[in-house]
Design goal:
This protein has 225 residues and is α+β, with helices and mostly antiparallel strands. 17% of the residues lie in helices and 20% in strands. The radius of gyration is 22 Å and the shape is globular. The two termini are 43 Å apart.
């Protein structure tokens, strides 16, 4: 395999397997936006919270902007923009907070909101509480060979809303997880976070057994890792 580096140097790499994770940059060159008042910033069309570009009456959604490059995000942003423009909802705007993101690996990896490092960087280590659960999905119970059982890791990242905040005053600002079935759990978690769920809300929810999802509501408030 031949790779070309940023400084145009070609390098030969021998590998058994190759994973491409290069993303998809906005395709805006063909639009000839340099002939308009639409501003390009970091290779993408610059928009405000209401999808307005820098040119009056011109709007942009989806992968040509610098927002989340996810199909459901573009669809929702388009619907919201239509409601605002044509259905007399001038204050309606797309919320880019708490969007669930999944890497469809084996097992899948999921993220909502802030990661642990990001939360600490923004809010400070003393204000962030992280709960963890490491376990083996019960799906693998019949498997006799231990190394064939893939472990799961769930993390809740919470923000203290007071100095000595208990679970009732810890806002869930981030979810991180890896494990079988996590991709099917994230939409519900995103709803809870958008509604402002606290750690106590999770603690007060009754688990469905036997499922991997029950681990989200069984993280002992007294066992912070």
């Amino acid at each position: 395999m031949i790779l070309k580096t940023e400084d145009a140097i070609e390098k030969s790499i021998i590998a058994d397997k190759v994973l491409y994770a290069v993303g998809r940059p906005p395709l805006v060159d063909a639009l000839k936006l340099e002939n308009t008042n639409v501003k390009i910033e970091k290779g993408a069309i610059k928009v405000d919270d209401f999808q307005n570009t820098t040119a009056e009456g011109v709007y942009a959604i989806g992968d040509v902007t610098d927002k989340f490059t996810l199909t459901p995000v573009a669809i929702r942003a388009g619907r919201i923009l239509s409601e605002r423009l044509f259905n007399n909802k001038p204050h309606l705007k797309m919320l880019y907070k708490n969007i669930a993101t999944v890497i469809f690996s084996h097992p899948p990896i999921g993220l909502i909101g802030m990661g642990e490092e990001e939360a600490i960087k923004e809010h400070g280590e003393t204000k962030v509480v992280v709960y963890k659960s490491t376990f083996i999905n019960m799906f693998y119970s019949p498997v006799k060979i231990q190394e064939h059982k893939k472990p799961c890791l769930f993390k809740l990242i919470c923000l203290k809303r007071a100095e000595d905040a208990g679970p009732d005053n810890q806002l869930v600002i981030g979810v991180q997880c890896i494990g079988r079935g996590t991709d099917e759990m994230l939409t519900g978690l995103s709803i809870a976070m958008t509604m402002g769920a606290t750690k106590l809300d999770f603690d007060n929810s009754v688990a469905i057994h036997p499922t991997a999802g029950e681990e989200w509501v069984l993280m002992d408030a007294n066992l912070v890792q």
